[in-house]
Amino acid sequence: MALMRLAYASEATFEAQPLEKGVEPHVARILMVSRRNNGRAGLVGGLYYGDNRFFQYLEGEEEFVRETFERIRQDSRHRNIRMLIEEPLDVPTFSNWSMKYVPLSSDVQAFLDKHQLPDFNPAAFSSHQCEEMIDLIRRSSEDQKLVNHDEDSPARVQHSQTLSPGVRYGLLAAGVMVIVAVVAGAVLF
Ligand SMILES: Cc1cc2nc3c(=O)[nH]c(=O)nc-3n(C[C@H](O)[C@H](O)[C@H](O)COP(=O)(O)O)c2cc1C
Hints:
This is BLUF domain protein. The chain has five helices and seven strands, in the order E-H-E-E-H-E-E-H-H-E-E-H. It is an alpha+beta fold. About 20% of the residues have low confidence.
């Protein structure tokens, strides 16, 4: 099984909505489909969107990376795609997840400040800066500092999995029992 990794920069063709309106709906839709498809294909990576530009990193089995990128390349929601990295990979560098969306956040702002970059323009990143961006994606995935936009809903910070499914179902069952007890009490007394 040959692995590869790929990173590119592109420009969004849609009009960005004001930041205060929350998650860009186009990006939310892209992410929803990406997570589904990439999960099936065993691809990992991340998508940054800011200043109406994209930076995407993908890694996984070569066949699936190429197939996915071919679809992405033909997508009219972006243009001027510039390949930044396209190379074989020996060992996977991400531990889990199918696709992450990392909004332009304080760590990206710190990265831009550090390199004295006036705005988010990944097409102009040096290879070293690309690696730094990939590291940011990797680290935010490990910290779980991610925003889940699976639904077209306002941004929700997805903190680490605080409750295991067992505990969650336990609490749910306890909640149901409390409701039953209250209803039974009201009926009986
Ligand atoms: C910037 C950008 C990034 C995208 N990233 C992915 C991706 O990682 N995986 C994916 O399946 N589709 C991605 N898409 C969407 C694809 O272009 C395409 O719409 C989608 O794969 C079609 O999937 P479907 O045939 O299951 O509807 C992306 C689109 C854009 C504009």
